[in-house]
Amino acid sequence: TDVTEKLEEVVMIWIKQIKQILVESEQMRREADDIGPSAELEHWKTRMSSFNSLLDEIKSSRVRKIISILQAARSKTLKQWKELDGNITIAANEAKDNVRYLYTLDKFFGPLAKASPVMMEHVPSLMNTVCMIYCTSPYYNTSERMTSLLLKITNQMVNTCKMYLREG
């Protein structure tokens, strides 16, 4: 029982740390007013990397051994652990899915950032792709996520137009 108690203490520390990571990942991001859509892709790539690293750690042999010992001891901490494990998996899948969908927009970010009215010919295709993301993505189809993305696209277009006018 001493070993079980020590392992439960370790798992409770992990649970506290993981809960903190999950809470921080859901907090509102502070971003510059003129940030472009590439920042959205970078945010989700970073988040995907973080959660994948966390998943790798949770699936490590060291952690699995501790969890199996606690399962044999019928520890009460495992209920919280399993719930958090599921939440991390969901967050990792969300980030991976969002990166996959946002990469479909990546081909538009270059032309959108070039200081030329030529970018306007890409807008219909860009909007069709955004619509496709909204209709098919299981995670990115919320009004908050779409508003944030469209705001960043608009910011990029405004910045591009300003640069064009300054150069012209």
From TrEMBL:
Residues 5-166 form the Dynein heavy chain tail domain. InterPro entries: DHC, Dynein_heavy_tail. One of its GO terms (cellular component) is axonemal dynein complex. Signal peptide: none annotated. It comes from the Eukaryota. GO terms for biological process: microtubule-based movement. One of its GO terms (molecular function) is dynein light intermediate chain binding. This is DYH5 protein. It comes from Corythaixoides concolor (Grey go-away-bird). The lineage of its organism: Eukaryota, Metazoa, Chordata, Craniata, Vertebrata.
